[in-house]
Design brief:
This is RNase adapter RapZ. It comes from Massilia forsythiae. One of its GO terms (molecular function) is GTP binding. Keywords: ATP-binding, GTP-binding, Nucleotide-binding. Helix 1 crosses helix 6. The model has no long low-confidence stretch (mean pLDDT 89). The protein is of the alpha/beta class. The protein folds into 2 domains: 160 residues, 3-Layer(aba) Sandwich (Rossmann fold); 115 residues, no CATH class. It is 38% helix and 19% strand. The chain has a 5-stranded parallel sheet with strand order 2-3-1-4-5, sandwiched between helices. A 4-stranded parallel sheet has the order 7-8-6-9, covered by helices on one side. It is built from 9 helices and 9 strands.
Length: 287
């Protein structure tokens, strides 16, 4: 079984890392006390789960010292165990907690004999957490997220976990401007400059998937030129969206009624990119 332990300082990105792994198909558990890790592995192994990710933090203070022994025992049983330790500078952590207005997990703990009215400051909590986690910092790969964007952290976690990147899904959606622009559109292209088949009474009841409409628009130089421009634009910028770890990209193509020109363009674009990409074509105004 592949077991990935995510640990480190609160506010350094453990939730971001765990979400990446959950999206990749890992069975994920947050804030699991280390003594329960072997039992969890046995349980999910019996359910034929092959990938498990567990987040461990300083709230399990009493049992953190046993984590290195637990990791070693799991490896001896034949499990592939990898540890990722996330950290950040105190300055960065203070800024993050201030921005999110969340309290530090250790701020709710009371030390023996401590007055409930005298809570520890954020910096005191961060320093104590560093001290608690010191024995396990060297267990695995350390990532300093101080100057790291959330997106870059996702990419690094995927690489360290040897997670295959889920292919981006490219949506081409036709729509009618008179009914509004789709809210989920990343790019919107207006094809109303193309001659409208609607004004041909024989084509009016048809749509952009019907052969007579396709033949009509194929014969229009404006349609062919505009199609080539949109296709070139999407092809140019698609690699950047893939590199940005996007799961999908929606290209909306609109005309007046969402029946002829936009449907034709969306179908043509979908057919072109389907040879190399995961493509979905949908028509908002069509039944």
């Amino acid at each position: 079984m592949r077991i990935l332990l995510i640990t480190g300082i609160s506010g350094s990105g453990k939730s971001v890392a765990l979400n990446v792994l959950e999206d990749a198909g890992y069975y994920c558990v947050d804030n699991l006390p280390p003594p329960l890790l072997p039992a969890l592995v046995r349980t999910v192994d019996g359910e034929h789960t092959r990938c498990v990710a567990v987040a461990v933090d300083a709230r399990s203070a009493q049992s953190l010292a046993e984590l290195p022994h637990t990791v070693a025992a799991l490896r001896e049983e034949g499990h592939h165990v990898k540890v990722i330790y996330l950290t950040a500078s105190t300055h960065s952590l203070v800024a993050r907690f201030s921005e999110t207005r969340r309290s530090h997990p250790l701020s709710h703990e009371l030390r023996p004999g401590e007055n409930p009215a005298s809570r520890r400051t954020l910096i005191e909590c961060i320093l104590e957490e560093r001290e608690r986690l010191l024995p396990i910092e060297k267990l695995g790969h350390v990532i300093d997220t101080s100057e790291l964007s959330a997106n870059k952290l996702r990419a690094w976690v995927k690489e360290l976990a040897e997670v295959e990147y889920a292919p981006l899904t490219l949506f081409f959606e036709s729509f009618a401007f008179k009914h509004g622009v789709p809210l989920d559109a990343d790019f919107v292209f207006d094809v109303r400059a193309v001659p409208n088949p609607y004004y041909d009474v024989t084509l009016r009841p048809l749509n952009g998937r019907d052969a007579p409409v396709i033949a009509f628009l194929d014969a229009q130089p404006q349609a062919i030129e505009l199609l080539a421009d949109v296709r070139a634009f999407v092809a140019k910028w698609l690699p950047s969206f893939k590199k940005d770890n996007r799961s999908y990209l929606t290209v909306a193509v609109g005309c007046t009624g969402g029946q002829h020109r936009s449907v034709y363009m969306a179908e043509r674009l979908g057919a072109y990119f389907s040879d190399s990409e995961r493509v979905v074509v949908r028509h908002r105004e069509q039944p």
